[in-house]
Fold:
Amino acid sequence: MVIAFLHPPAPAIGAEDDSWPSSVLKFSAGVAASALIHEGAHALTAWATGTAMTWEVGSYNQPVGFTERAGSNSKGVALYSSGLFSQAIGGEVLLRWDRIDKNDNFIRGMMTWDVVNPLLYSLDYWFFRRTNKKDGNSYQGDLQGIEHYSNKTTANVIAASFSAIAVFQAYRFLQTQEWAPEWLKGETSRLGFRPLHPEGFMMTYHFRF
Structure:
């Protein structure tokens, strides 16, 4: 599995006491926290729907996996889609809450996993088939579970939807980063005036594309 970071963990500008080891640890902790929220959403949905779950470590080509016995198709879809929903919601909270420091390495780690994980799930479901697999009546992976309890069209729509959300959230998060170029984080357009000598002026209009 290849993970591409939105930005390598680095000391925030102005944070002199945030060393490289500390930055990496905070970034990793953020990734782990986001992963736990994803799995916690599965567990919470299972509890809310009365679905029996069995957790396993180091299985299904993932660090943590589970088996379940959903009582209906709707419960199965809710269970398997809840992790992706939690990451989309979590990403929005991080982006919209002004009091959250977007340049903190813990937040960078959380946001990275909220963006990367849905994209990896979708790419795996569409092309690689390492985590999302089907073998007769057995299946593994969130999107394969959604397909099992609904159909392939539903799984594709959910995969495409959460991928689009992840890309959009990544773009918005990049705009908040201190290292981002001005053309990325600046205003979409700007009207200005420039004096010309000996008299007159020139009106300028800048826009991003």
In short: Strands lie at 52-59, 62-69, 133-135, 138-140, 189-195, 201-207. The radius of gyration is 22 Å. Confidence is low (pLDDT under 50) at residues 1-5, 12-16. The helical segments are 20-49, 73-96, 105-128, 142-149, 152-175, 182-185.
